[in-house]
Structures are given as C-alpha cells and as structure tokens.
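Chapter review. Work through the record for Iron ABC transporter permease before attempting the end-of-chapter questions.
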Amino acid sequence: MKIEQKSAKWRASMLIVIALFALLGIGLSLICGAVNIAIPEVIHSLFGGESTYHDIIWNIRLPRTIVAALVGISLALSGALLQGVMRNSMADPHIIGVSSGAGLFGIGVLILFPSYVYLLTPVAFIGAIGAALLIYLMAWRGGVSPLRVILAGVAVSALLNAGISALLTFYSDRVGGALLFLVGGLSARSWPHVNILLPYTIIGTVLALIGSQRLNIMALGDTQAKALGLRVETYRLYFTAIATLLAASTVSVVGLLGFVGMIVPHSARLLIGSDYRWLLPASVLLSVAVLTISDTVARLAFAPIELPVGIVMGVLGAPFFLFLLRRREL
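Structure tokens for Iron ABC transporter permease:
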C-alpha cells in the first residue's frame, strides 16, 4: 500500500468538501422517499414544530438515516484499521472473514433460535471474535504477517460462508427472515437500532482515533516499527479487536453489508493521503455520505419497490475491487 502525502491545506480543504457531501447525503435521506418532503418542512419537523410530516421524519427517516450513518462509520473504520494493520488496500471485514463469523452466528440465531433474537448483537460479536481468533491461529508462525492473515481470512471466510449456506439449505422453510440479513438492508430500522449501534460506534471510533499515530508507525513495516519501539503484535491484535467490534455491531443490525469497509477508506486515502490522523476522520465523514446516498438510491431506484442497500453497495463495490486490481496495489 503506497504512502501518499498531501499538504495540510489540501487535507483540510478535502475534509470540508467531504463533510459537505455527508450533509448532502443526510439531507437527501430525510427529504426523499415514497413522499418527498420540502426542506422547510424537514427543518420545521426536526426542530420540534408541529408538521404534517412530523411522524415520518422522526419515527421513520431520521432513525434510519442515523443508523445508515453509524453503520457507515463503523464499517469504514473497521476497514481502515484492517487495511492499516495488514498494509493492504483490499482488506475489509467482509473479505477477510470477520463479518462472515458474525453472519454465521447471526443467521444461526435467526433460523435456529428466533425467540432469542434480542441476543443477536452479543452472539454476532462472539462469532466475529471467534473468526478473528481462528484467522490468527491459522496465520501464526512465530508471529503474524499481514499476507498470512489475509490468506487465512479468505480461507476462514469461505468456510464460514459454507456454514451459512448449509444452514439455509437444511432450514429452507425458515429463511424468509434471514434473506435481508444476508444482503444487508436498512429497511424498518428505527430508534432501538440506533440505541444498539451508538455505544459500539462511539467506543470504536474513540479507540481508533487514539491509536491513529501508531497506525502510521505500523505502515512503515514491522521491522522499522519494532525499531521505533512499537509492540507490533500487541497493536495488531488491538486494532483487529476494534475492527471486529465495529464490524460485529453492524452485522447484528443490518446484516452482511459488504464493500463499505474497502471502498470508503481507500477512496479517502486517494483524496487525503495515508496519514491516519487525517484518514480516519475523512473515512468517517465519507462513509456517512456514501451510506446515506446509497440508501436513498436504494429507496428510489425502483420505487415503490425498495432495494436493500447491500445491492447498491455491491454494484459500486465490484467495479471498485477491479479498479484496485488494475492499480496493482494489493
């Protein structure tokens, strides 16, 4: 992964531009839908005024928009952290296998124990942690190299996806509630889902930002990072645990939403450079723009039929993946 330097003035300017796109995405998410609501009506409803559209804004669109923003932030930070510790722009929780671990355990709850759906978040987190530990065990050989972690992650992801397929095959009569989970969607997400995601996103974001300078040191390579006194293996586990926490929380709420963790951090890196003190905030803002705009497109593209946002991200993600291959930065 190339280290790309940008001036402080350029970075600040790009952060402002990205922030404006994030605000645009939030605005579109609140305005557009089955019923288009004028901007003055949206503002009036948001600030407590009585309005014909008050319930639509406060009980449907606002919580869904917040969930989209929190999901985007969590997945983008998760991807940025994994790309940092593995020094590979292809790394993201979906491809590496962490999301698959959360997905397998989440699908297991939905299909085998539907009455315990309230345990979906902790169970998904256990699955993600289990997948991360399995990846590290498979990759360990007197230490962990980024390449071995990626290869082990791809293998573990394939194994866990096979487990998901087996569950869907053996319990085909119960897959109705799991279909949206498999694709990743924001339909019917409301305030309880905001309450689930918010603490994980805050904790993960704070821990990631605190460690941004250490990620810069790790980007120099294991040998040089160790020479500078950094405990590389300790921090690799630390950042992987944060990435796992963030990915698992999103899987438990919106399902297996792929490509966000790869597209957003890499796009932010192209715009703002590889200094994680700037890259992480840029990824946060860009993820809000990407997820809210993508969800708006998913709602409007084939209205009144609503697409899961995971389909839109797949359409964006596959060409982006090919773009990375063409750049030969993997």
